[in-house]
Amino acid sequence: MAFTVWGAALAAYVVAVTGRTSLGVAGLQAADRFEISAASLSMFVVVQLAVYAAAQIPVGILLDKVGSRRVLVVGAVVLAAGQLLLALVGTLPLALVARVLVGVGDATAFISVLRLVPAWFPAQRVPVLTQMTGIVGATGQIISAVPFMAVLLGHGWTPAFVSLAGLGVFMAGVAALLVRDRPAAVPGTTRTAVADVDAQGDDAVQPVGTGAEVPPSRVRAPAVKKKASLSKVVREPGAWLGFFTHFLTLFPTNTFILLWGVPFLTAGQGLSAGAASALLTISALAGIVLGPVSGVLQSRHPMRRSWLVIGAFGFVVVAWVSVLVPSTPRPMWQLVVLVIALTASATASNIGFDFARTSVPADRLGTATGMVNVGGFVASLLSIFLVGLVLDLVRPGGGYVLDDFRLAFSAQAVPWVAGLIGLLAARRATRRRMAERGVVVPPVREAIARMLGARGDGSRREP
Ligand SMILES: NCCCC[C@H](N)C(=O)NCC(=O)O
Q1: Which GO terms describe its molecular function (predicted)?
Q2: Higher model confidence: residue 273 or residue 445?
Q3: How far away, in angstroms, is 346 Cα from ligand 1 center?
Q4: Which among 18, 68, 110, 248 is the best mutation to test ligand 1's pocket, defined by most ligand atoms within 8 Å of the CB?
């Protein structure tokens, strides 16, 4: 039942990602239909990201009030309405309205799925399933690139977007039929285990475990939940740790994949369009390997999750510096390392949701997840804007060359520095809060020494 619920919600998220990426593959046709330059198409990306980010907190609060099922159903219908409008209109302002609807619908999917996972699965599995949600969701991009593109080329704009609208309505039906916000009884636990969770009261938080099985979190029926969640969530340092984790690690990938990566690889590095798309494919494949690895490390070493984040951040910074410092195009292997580093960074962004899960009670998880998601998308908007701004300043007429991109991508230093300062401050505050709750994070040196000692004793678990 847990996998059926997760699978149905995940399918809705795949369709949301298809909607999100559909305009990207229909760029030429959109430029033609709305009589705009290819460069103006970036406006659609910015509108979409801004709407997505702005909708996260309201959608998160709604999730805590009415549950994932209703939010997913309404979100899929709104997304379908946006696609239908886009299918029918021929003017830019109406197309932007349609894109706003698509952005709002899209904003409901990911955080609705993430709210279901800890309600249906034991805590130890949550990090891997969260990573799997991101990986499977990304296949929506393949639906845009292959079947959607085939309908677009074979039958034209209106049938292509009407079929996406149909898919949205279908997913609303699937979510209504199969998604349940919580199990009728907590599976795999005894009555006592449930009573124990209840005994901790309304504010019980999923513990930062040490790899032991913790029962699925108890999500109470909406009628029982009355408290305003936002003010409590923003006072929780762990939610900010999640926010800055997502802020620091998601934007390099979004900046590259959503807008500036292909121009940099083709106009800047001199690759063919085919070689550039091969690099994007390598990046997607790397995610399939890195996601589960990160999920397993997160559940085995929950006290060291921030080191995974800082490691991924260090990897992508070193990869970018090694590509941007030399003034000549880089060899293919170095660009491969860059796209793998970008994927590692996006993978680490999901650790932000895990910080939220272990910092706020299950009844406020929707709000906290929305807040974490805002971090990555606000940073993405800032980074995409800064890269575009520098390109505009150094070469106002377009026709960018490698030196322009070297300068422009260096602007990512701004969100990196801001994100790192926020992350370190939030980590310190979170550790203080954990200590108040009786959980003390031992220094890394001590933890490594204990692990080595434990290995000598034949034990396999970190203390
Ligand atoms: N394979 C990496 C996926 C990263 C997902 C990312 N952390 C995220 O927040 N996604 C939100 C969404 O709506 O897709």
Answers
A1: transmembrane transporter activity
A2: 273
A3: 7
A4: 110
